[in-house]
Amino acid sequence: MGSSAESERNLELELLCKNIKSSEKSKRQIALKELLQIVSKQTNDADLKRLLDQTYLHLVKCYTDRFESTRSLAILIVNELLSRFDGRNEFFLDYILPTIRRRIGLPEIVEESEEVQLQLLEQVGRIVDKFQSKDEDFLMRVYNDVMDIVIRNLSNQYANAHRQCCKVIQLLAIATPSFYIRAENLVDPLIALLCHRQSATRTTAVETLGIVGLYINNKNDKLVQSIVSISPLLTDSVAAVRRMCGIVGCKWLMQLRDRYSFFERIVPLVLCCLKDDLADIREEINLLFIHCGDQYFEENEKELQRIELIDHEYPCSNYIETVAKKRPTLGCRALVQKSLRMINIIVKEIQDWKEPVRLHSLKLLWEVVLFAEKAFTCKFMELFPVLAKACQDDENSVVKEAKRVAFLMGQLLNYSDWMEHAMRDLKKFPSCLGILRCFNSLFAGAELEQKQNSIEEIAKLISTSEMCHNLNEVHQSVLLDLIEQMVKILLDKVEMNERSDIASSSNLLADEERYLFEILVKTIALSNAHENEEITNRGLQLYEQFCRTPENRVVLQGKYTKAIIIGIEDLDCEHSERSERIVMLFGCIKLCGFQKEYFDSTQSAVKMVLDNSTANAQIKILSGVSMAFLDYNHENMEEEALDLLTRFIKDILEPALVWKAGRNAESIRAMAIQALCSIGYSCTTEARGIFPSLAKHFISLVEDELAITRAYAIRCILKSGPFPYEDYRQLTIDILSRLDDPCANVRSLAIECLPLLEVDRTDDLFSETSYSTLAEAVISRLFLYLDDPFIKIRPILLDSLSMMAKKHPVVFENETNKLPSNYLYNDVINELKKLRLE
After folding, report:
1. Which of 167, 294, 586, 804 lies deepest, with the highest CB count within 10 Å?
2. H or E segment at 755?
3. pTM to 2 decimals?
4. pLDDT of 495-516, one tens digit each?
């Protein structure tokens, strides 16, 4: 019976083989499907071997069948045989792999169907997996066939074929110890896949390249080429790709032969992932990197144990709050410190023309500084100019990241070392915005105790004209950032000294105080060069904070402003209103005003500008004088105030009041009379004594072309004391003529001024008769303007007439009797009489 059943099976197989060879497609496919069912039911290796012996030639031939479905069925049958065999059958190595190579492993791929190509590649992977062994290299004799297939299909146009090839490579690396023989040949086609449009292909290519790199001869440049090619993917838009770059980096750090020689190139792959935007990637790579550090510690235990004994403290007091949640392990730090030659690569990338590349390299640099700590000090001189250059542009993500790096360096590096070098560069390039920004961030990161001893040196450098006299708005803003830090430190020192009751603490800080005061005043002064008030307001806040109290502000101004004014050079040259020197003088006058300690210095500076500079510059300075005198405080001058003001008016303002032809002269007169008016309002007593001597100028200015000049001239007359009679008469006549002025404001001031105009009755030319005649003319003219269309004129007229009625009652009555019996005038007269009685 057994022999009969076996005969039937043989006949059935012969029939199947006959049908597989049939010229009809349908018969071949039916036979192959039946064979697949037969194979799937076999469980014994002996039965499978007998079955294979009878059918293998037909199966191999089906691999070249012209119909895709037939070829696919043959591949499925071989896959089923492969999975059913418990042992290893040489058939797959001797027949199937060479056949597959002929189909898809030659320079020109014979197999046309992409689906069948993928099936064949999957079958190669199954064969490699089946024949892997730790004891014997079964794949050695087919190694070249497998490599030819893989290398050819890595450049396949079919994306799935790429990924399947990568899986075969990964299996082959495990399956045969001979993988290293042609591993280098895989590098170039795998690198080509790193630019594939599909992220899954890029991810698989990175993973495979990481495995291949372990088997490459390190003496050639293929490994370096691999690292360089993977590095750009650290900024890939897909998180899986970036994650795989970090994993490969950690794998190489732990498993690569001669890995110590490549640390400087591999470590950046890992550190970049520690700054990834996704927390999951950061945490995963961080754990892997800790394992790398632990391994490095074990490999260098004797050396690192000595360091561990003395390296148990954090490098700075505020490490946890502002640097990192946890300090990196000693092994990780030592690994990075051994790789500091990578700074050469980072420096080149920081200077790249692409902003994303610069940003990426700066983030990497931040991690390097974090792990290197004080060991990074040796690289500071090399890096500082590049970091300063990165801070040079307008505020953007690159500048912000560069400032973060500088801040971290200030925290972790040796203070004295970087301070010496940074100060040297700051002196050499005082107007370089990038160096100032970088220095500011470095200084901000340093510890308070270290910074306190450097305040005087830094403030002295910054107060120089080369650095402080800069009209650039951004430069001023950065300078204020640095000043803000130093002001805070200085105030803390003052407060500490006061609490400790240290005698003469102010004397101990005198130089620091002087330099900082000069810097603040100069910066606030120069901020007037542009329209942005943010810097001015911020500077004023710092100024008030620095001075602490109004009384102390006056003291500081008296002590240090004179030196600032004297320090403004070349005022005897011709300057425009935009000149840094003119802006500086204008700002100083506006901010500090006039005090007796520096009154003469300011007067001399203003005089030089009025004598030498352009008209616009003169106008600007006179406007500053005007603003300063509005807030003029002469209480501390006592008897000196009258003499100082008299000389200032005589030397500075009076020459500017003299009429000269031209629009510029017209504007200068307007600003000069405005400054004189400011003196009249702030120094009322002194003005009453000084202004009468300026009557001849007032007479001219009341008739000036500019309405604003006429208005300010009348305001000055209002603040003046008694005029000599002849000047009084002329002024009265001129002001009466202003009642017809086209400017309503001038008319109002003229009406207001007429009853307030004072005459010196002790003057030899004074006559009551003439005086009454003038009063009669004034009252008569005032009545004529009761019908002025400007509605604000009427109450002013009533007030002036009331004052004239009280001042000249007889004249007023006589003029009132002359008025027509009109209801309007009667109402006015009745109202005026009530006012006079009151």
Report:
1. 586
2. none
3. 0.82
4. 777 766 554 444 556 788 889 9
